[in-house]
Amino acid sequence: MHRKKKRGLFFAIILWGIFSTVLASEDAPADLEKIVVSRSRNYFSDEYTLNPADLANLPYSSPVEALAVLPIDLQSRSPHAAIQTDYSLRGSNFQDVLILLNGQRINDPQTAHFNSDIPITRADIAGLEVLPSASSSLFGPDAIGGAVNFVIQKPEEEKYILALSGGEHNTFSELFSVSQKIKALGLRLSVENQQSSGFREDTDFRKFTASAVASLALPLGSFDLSWGYQKKDFGAFDFYTPGKGYPSREWTRTYLLDTGLHLEKDGLLIKPNFIWRRHFDKFVLDKTLQRSDFISHHRNDTYTPNIYFQKDIAKLGKLGFGLEYGQERITSTTLGRHNRDHKSLFIDDSLNLAPKVSSDLSFRMDDFDGFNEVYTGSANLRYEFIPQNYLRLAVSRNMRVPSFTELYYGDDGFTIGNPNLSAEKSLNYEIGYELKKESFSFSPTIFFRREDDFIDWVWADASQRWQAQNISGADVLGIETQFGWELNKIASVNTNYTYINKFTDKSGYLLKYGPNYSRHLWNTEFIFKLPFGSQSIGFTYKQKPGRSGWFLLNARGNFNLNKNMAIFVSGTNLLNVGYQEIEGIPQPGRWIDSGIKLEW
User: Fold this and answer.
1) Beta bridge partners of 277
2) 335: nearest Cα among 416, 413, 278, 255
């Protein structure tokens, strides 16, 4: 009977989506102006974004790498963040960041090490958004530290893109994308290939990505569909065993389907959506088989249908309500076979309480198989005490259920999971100030987070195996600042700085991931828009607890040959600094790339 109810909810959502489409097509006049819904839920104000103009100026080879200029700690095991990168926000564990695609949750249920396996190309990206703590609670589990949203560009015009590049360590990249607009239907097909021999032994990689995007304009909105495939083959030297010296190898494949409707009429927004993600992983601990013959195979699937309604009501503001059902499945040689379902409902409201006071509220209930119901939510107040000067207060509660790896993993002597883990929970408090003018912005925020039952891999001494364990608590205190200034029509600067101090009840354990956050994180980017093309120079400084900090210098020069053709030269770590994002896994030194891009 329980399964029948779940299937009933699933089919109800799909049928409602079909019904909404038919209703929209029949009731609206054919010549009604198209309504574009850019956002379906309320975001709070402490978000950090990159738009297409920003991305065009940055030295990046993948959408993930472009995030490095925002206040998020990218913990990469590979060059250019091209293969595997963990995320940390405001001192969070790498598992505690929610990954979104167009606002839909796509976290890998096996392990967050695969959260960067997103089958989209550089031609697909319309924007990137980082949503810390209170801003992310509405979107569901895993947002202990916050969320990252990858926004896909709709195909709205006929366009062709061809980009070719090459660089040090036999690095090559090819990108081709074609977009067409046929009346109300927009289509885009993109293919991208990247490869390198690696900057040291067992760091070579190959990555192939293909994506297809379709958008159909309807009288009351649009129907959108995106499909992606990505295949990676890479050397994984000590990726999961830092300092052990294992020449490992890993192969992953990712399939992703995202489809949904965006409909609006008389102030009512209706958005049914369905997302499916499948991920394959094969891992060989020692490809020479001289020290270990450990080989693992994994396949996981995530299915998430949901529906969201939003109505603009005079006295209540923008009131939203949503239902979501999700199922996660895994078949693995080391984790076994497991299924788990979850049901969620959520409510949000955005309301102007007074001429200069606004509020954003959210409430969410999540019910995961094997865990108690968890209630989360947030409240945010924003007060304009002087024109263009705002004071912001926020509080939120977030949660995360353990990954399949944390629950069930077991290998030949290094690591073991724990099926008795509890869900993580956190309380977030923050106060911030915002100054926003046309060419100038400044936004400092003080935040505090209390984590209960947070999960890490621990041991009491080096003779034991790492085991997943709930830690009773941790307190995170920090400050985050953002500053942007457009000096003139040619030059602009954007900088952000985050300081974090984390106090953990270790209970006599040594934590594997707990100390890996950045205590000091500083990014600054200078952009120069010159007649022959845009140029950028970026600085990054990181310092982690108990370790020396490092300073990185990156730059990119774009040179327009004509209106359809440009060449570029890009350099990362120009000072050739030796550093390790994850202790025991060295990162590459100076890396120079150059290439050409044609767009017509």
Assistant:
1) 256, 302
2) 416
CA distance 479 to 19: 48
Sheet of 97-101: strands edge to edge? 48-50, 125-132, 146-152, 97-101, 104-105
Q: Residue 3: pLDDT above 90?
A: no
* C-alpha span between 305 and 487 (Å, rounded): 46
Are 408 and 417 a contacting pair, CB within 8 Å?
A: yes
Contact 83, 115 (CB under 8 A): no
Rounded CA gap, 401 and 399, in Å?
Answer: 7
* Coil, strand or helix at 599: strand
Residue 504 CA to residue 144 CA, distance in Å, equals 15
Q: What separation in angstroms does the CA of 239 have from each of 207, 243, 505?
A: 17, 9, 27
Q: Tokens 């979501």 correspond to what residue?
A: 324
Identify which of 450, 398, 431 has the alpha carbon closest to the alpha carbon of residue 138: 398
Residue 102 in tokens: 């167009």
Over residues 497-511, the mean pLDDT reads: 86
pLDDT tens digits for range 113-147: 999 999 999 999 999 999 987 666 678 889 999 99
CA distance 352 to 348: 14
**Count of domains for the chain:** 1
Cβ-based burial of 584 (10 A; exposed 0-12, middle 13-18, buried ≥19): exposed
Residue 461 pairs in a beta bridge with none
Place of tokens 């289509």: 187
Domain with residue 457: its CATH number is: 2.40.170.20
| Rounded Cα–Cα distance for residues 43 and 76 (Å) | 28
Tokens 């995360």 -> residue: 400
pTM for the predicted model, two decimal places: 0.90
Domain extent for 361: 2-599
- Percent helix, strand, coil in the chain (nearest 5)? 10, 60, 30
DSSP assigned state of 422:
P
Q: Tell me the residue ranges of DSSP E strands in 437-490.
A: 440-459, 466-486
Amino acid at 264: E
At 299-315, the pLDDT tens digits run 999 999 999 999 999 88
Q: How many CA atoms lie within 13 A of 396 on its CB side?
A: 33
CA distances from 332 to 116, 231, 445, 531 (A): 20, 19, 43, 55
SS3 584: coil
Query: Whole-angstrom Cα distance, residue 6 to residue 273?
Result: 16
SS3 annotation, 214-254: EEEEECCEEEEEEEEEEEEEEECCCCCCCCCCCCCEEEEEE
Could you tell me which residues come within 8 angstroms of residue 108 by beta carbon, excluding any fewer than 6 positions away?
A: 114, 115, 117, 277, 279, 300, 302, 403
3-state secondary structure 164-190: EEEECCCEEEEEEEEEEEECCEEEEEE
Cite the DSSP H helix spans in 389-501.
404-408
Q: In whole angstroms, give the CA distance from residue 142 to residue 116.
A: 15
